[in-house]
Amino acid sequence: MPKKLLGKMAADLAMTVLLLLLMAYSLIGEAAHEWLGAGMLLLFILHHVLNFGWIKNIGKGRYTAVRVLQTALAVLVLAAMLGSMLSGIAMSRYVFEFLPIEGGLSLARTVHLPCAYWGFIFMSLHLGLHWNMVMGIVRRMRKRQASKKQRIVLRIAAAVIALYGIVAFLHNDIFSYLFLRTHFVFFDYEQPLILFFADYLAMMGLFILIAHSIGNSLLKRGGQRRKEESN
């Protein structure tokens, strides 16, 4: 496997892990949340450096439906992450405490909450649009295709995770945070941390499945259209 691709995979995996940890906020402590956020900022910069070729070619070539969706999602991820990071720096009491920032705390809190949750969703959708690439890498590492039975088991597992993700999304009242119906996140301190992460992994899986399904559908339509045009 090329070193650059390996570096991209490592950075993206680290960002996914940090994203899940950041959603735990009060459960891991404010200082830990800030340090993890600073780590996410560095990884976010690294991600864009490693993918500079894609950024450089954003205005070139033909825009298929999938490419339009990928580009739109990339812009939304960037907007949500910038909002989350800049507001986080403004509120910082540990990592960026040395910065001469005065006032604006109320605005920063108002921006930080929806940006964090929209960022979680957009990043999950972004990952879903690249899920074929992830599965391709896994297949190359295994050096063989999954059997028919294995594919059936994987599809059932994906459906179960998605259903759990819907339940977790509703149970955790994520809509309230996305649309600022409340300005505070409710954490159940009696819930084991492993169950909290299971909820958020399932929600991530739900949005990965949604984006993966939409992406594959658009690819099939594009392929059919090209066939019709060539006939």
From TrEMBL:
SUPFAM superfamilies: Transmembrane di-heme cytochromes. The chain crosses the membrane at residues 36-55, 67-91, 111-131, 152-180, 200-219. The keyword Secreted does not apply. It comes from the Bacteria. One of its GO terms (biological process) is respiratory electron transport chain. Keywords: Membrane, Transmembrane, Transmembrane helix. GO terms for cellular component: membrane. This is DUF4405 domain-containing protein. It comes from Candidatus Merdivicinus excrementipullorum. The lineage of its organism: Bacteria, Bacillati, Bacillota, Clostridia, Eubacteriales.
